[in-house]
Structure formats: C-alpha cells, structure tokens
Amino acid sequence: MSETVNNSEAQTQEASYSELHRPASEFDTRDAYLENELKIMKPRRWGLNLPGRDFRFEWEDLVPAIAGTIGITVMYSAVMAAWATGLSEKWDHVNLGAEFAIQIVRVEMLIPALLFCIISSGFINPRANLGGNHGPMIPLIGTIALAGAHPLALAILIGIFGLILSYFKGGSKLVNLTSSGVAGGLLVFLGFMGAKSQIGSLFDWAGGLQAKHSLDYSLGYVAFAILLINVIIYAALAKYGKRWLAIPLCSIAAVALAFGLGAGLDLQFTTAPGIPNLNPVYWWGSTEHGWQLGLPNAAHFIASLPFAILAVAMWSPDFLGHRIFQELNYPKGAEKVLMDVDDTMTTCSVRQIVGTAVGGGNITSSWGTYMIPAAIAKRPIPAGAILLGSLCIIVAIIGYPMDITVWRPVMSIALLVGVFLPLLEAGLQMVKDTTSSQAAGICIFAAFVANPVLAWALTMLLDNNGLIGDKERPKTLSFADRIVIPSLAFVICLAAMLAVGMIEGIPALL
C-alpha cells in the first residue's frame, strides 16, 4: 500500500502543470480549485513560462492587477512630485513642474511595466515579485534631493548594492533570521501607521473642500461617511472570505459616496492621452531639458551613497511582509509558487537601474499593492503580473484614469483596504503566544522610538540572542546567525540613518 502511495506522489512530482490541471467544475468550491492550482504549479526559474503550459489566467487575477495599478499610480505621483519640488529648491537652474512629474510617471508606467511586469515576472521568472515602489523612502525624497543626490546616481548605487546582496543570498538569509514575533510586530506597526495616515489624509481632504471651492457649507462629513460604509463592506467581505474584492468594491463605493454627497466637483480630468519622450538622452543629456541635471558626477554619487545603502537595507523587512502574506493565505504544498526573496531582489535591482536610465525617478521595492491582494485572492504571480503591466501601459497612454486613481477618496481607500488593514491583520495573526508577543511589543515600541527598519534590525539581534522572545531560539542558530549577521544589519542601518539625519535630535553626519 505504501509503495502505491509513494509511486503516486512520485508521478505527481514528475507530471507537468498542464498534465495535473483540472477544470474548476470538478471542484466543490472555487477556493478548492484555486488552492489546487497553487499546489500543482511548477514555475520555471529564469526560463520561459507560457500560459496554458505553466499557468492560467483567472478572473481573480484582475483584482490584484487593478489594485496594483491604482497603488503604483498613487505612489509614482507622490515620488515624482517630491523629486520635482526638492530638485527645484536645491538647484537654481532647475525648474520642474507638474507637467514634468506627469511625464515621468508615464515613463515609469510604460517601460518598466513592459520589461519587468509582463516579460520578467510574467514569463521569465514568476517567483520574482514585481519591482514596485519603495513606500518608506517617499518621505525622504525631499531630503535626498536637498542633500545633492542625483536620481540616476542613486539608482545605479541601489541596483549595484541590491545585486550584491541577492548574489550572496543575503535577502533570504535576513528573512529566515526574522522570527514570527519580530515580523508580526513590524507588520502591526506598518499597518497601524499607514492606516492612521490615510484616515487623516481623507479627513483633511474632506475638511478642506469648503475653502478650496468657496462653498457656503462644510463637507467634512464626507470622509466619515466613506470610511463608515467601507468598514461595513470590508467586514462583510472578510466574513464571506472575499477580501480580495476589497479594493475595487471599496474604491467604487468611495467614488459613489463622494459624488452622492457633493464632493465630486473636486475630481478634475486634466491628464490628456499621450506618450512621453522615451529617449534617455532627452532626460539626462543636458541641463536644459528633461531632469535638467545632466549626467551624474562623483559628487552626486557621494551624496547618494548613504540613501542607497538605506534603501537596500530596508528591502528585507519589506520583502518579508509580502512573502508572509503568501504563506498565510496559500495552502500547504504551494511552496513552489512563493516569491523568492533573492530573485525578487535581483529583479528590483535591475529594474531600478533600467527604469531610471530611460528617464524614470522611482525608488524600487517589492510591489506590495500587487502582492498583498494577489495573496488574499490565492493567485500566483505570473498571470496577474501580465495583466497589471498591460493595465499600467493602457492607463499611462490614455492619461485620464490617472486622475481618478490619485483622487483622494480612491487613493486613501485603496491603500487602506488593500495594504494597511491586511498588514495589520497579518501581523496580529503572527503573534500567537507569549514569546512572540514580547518580541512584537518591543519591535513596535522601538519603531515608535526610531523607525520600523532600525526597530526590525535591533529586535532581530535581541531575539536571535534570547534576550527577548523565545529563549530556546539561540540554541538552534549558529554564531553567525546569532551575532555576526544581525549585528551587521543593525550597524549598517544605524550608520546609514545617522548619515542622512533620520535619527530624531541628531543632525545628519554627511
């Protein structure tokens, strides 16, 4: 009997995805079908993956594709506006306005979407998550620009450091050394602070409508109504196991309520159809057009160095959070479709250099607004990546949808239900006992004192040495895993933050 079972398992291991695939009609539930798809997929790493042979498109793939398009348009717009403001303030000859920011967003949504969403993560390596936006770095962009950094110099350094770390499997090593308690605390903090920020932004938007449009009455209640209805929708979706529908349904509800309550006059369609200049020489070739900075020199690289180190140091906790979402939502036996941290780091590094070289300005990291909804929807990377890349290209060319995605009700609600609330929930799920709750609590406390990256590095060091959390954990780790690697991570993060002035009360050392 045992020999028969072993032979059956061996045949399953050897059979291809197309041979093991069964139609959805043969399963009792849709979830059962989706979970079976995850178990039988065998993505080819750095090879050609084809629809039908290696993966299939399902209508659930539209959800993370739409969510990722909304999220990345919002993030890119924030990044390019920050670069334009900071560089214009730093350099007397630089004058970058709103039109510049829009064109750069379009560049970032066209070339990287084709190369790194559709081709790379869709067809070449479906275990590498897409290269999206490095959200925690957005508040620093003004400081980066004023420090004299050059976007292209910064991108080259980030790409080089990322490739080195991925080559030595540093990303996956750091993820494996992060306990569930530390990871849970990190996710809780990021989810809470992100949700708080978006709720505050939504109320500020609604409260400012009266003065902005010279109204005789206040529309401050619009934000409360939007949030209240969306809490109900999100709770109902969670109850019935349909949270992956949260971004499209909640965004539609936000738009309908905003118009219904009289706030629709704030939505303006100003981004006309078009294609940006895709010639790298136009963007970097002189100080008269494009970024108006010319090619970077040695001083630009020196000014960019600490920020590049910090960006790459912050990748591991970011990647960790996204992989955890897959692990929490995918069934056992689906390990082959989990995102590979080191491959994702390779993709992000190359995407960082190429995307900026052709004229972009994004700072890249694992694409959370895609991965989190995809994990909740129980979908692997490739099909959704192809749809997402296609949507980004369509939106960039048409133009007008960009105005909808960056409208405050859509932006805040999409980020709330698609990123920050799931982060908060995932973090709470990981804190399962006293030892993990202790590590999580100290991680959250340290994040409030300093910032989430330094808190992650510090609590990982303490946790791996048994000073907090599981006292038995150090016995299973080598000296390098307990002392050397966590200490290096902490020292590098601390040094980079001291260099750029990220520690409260201490001026920048460089």
Automatic annotation (TrEMBL):
<feature type="compositionally biased region" description="Polar residues">
    <location>
        <begin position="1"/>
        <end position="16"/>
    </location>
</feature>
<dbReference type="Pfam" id="PF11840">
    <property type="entry name" value="DUF3360"/>
</dbReference>
<feature type="transmembrane region" description="Helical">
    <location>
        <begin position="381"/>
        <end position="400"/>
    </location>
</feature>
<feature type="transmembrane region" description="Helical">
    <location>
        <begin position="298"/>
        <end position="316"/>
    </location>
</feature>
<feature type="transmembrane region" description="Helical">
    <location>
        <begin position="62"/>
        <end position="83"/>
    </location>
</feature>
<feature type="transmembrane region" description="Helical">
    <location>
        <begin position="174"/>
        <end position="195"/>
    </location>
</feature>
<feature type="region of interest" description="Disordered">
    <location>
        <begin position="1"/>
        <end position="20"/>
    </location>
</feature>
<keyword id="KW-1133">Transmembrane helix</keyword>
<keyword id="KW-0472">Membrane</keyword>
<feature type="transmembrane region" description="Helical">
    <location>
        <begin position="482"/>
        <end position="503"/>
    </location>
</feature>
<dbReference type="InterPro" id="IPR021794">
    <property type="entry name" value="DUF3360"/>
</dbReference>
<keyword id="KW-0812">Transmembrane</keyword>
<protein>
    <submittedName>
        <fullName>DUF3360 domain-containing protein</fullName>
    </submittedName>
</protein>
<feature type="transmembrane region" description="Helical">
    <location>
        <begin position="244"/>
        <end position="265"/>
    </location>
</feature>
<feature type="transmembrane region" description="Helical">
    <location>
        <begin position="440"/>
        <end position="462"/>
    </location>
</feature>
<feature type="transmembrane region" description="Helical">
    <location>
        <begin position="104"/>
        <end position="124"/>
    </location>
</feature>
<feature type="transmembrane region" description="Helical">
    <location>
        <begin position="215"/>
        <end position="237"/>
    </location>
</feature>
<feature type="transmembrane region" description="Helical">
    <location>
        <begin position="406"/>
        <end position="428"/>
    </location>
</feature>
<feature type="transmembrane region" description="Helical">
    <location>
        <begin position="144"/>
        <end position="167"/>
    </location>
</feature>
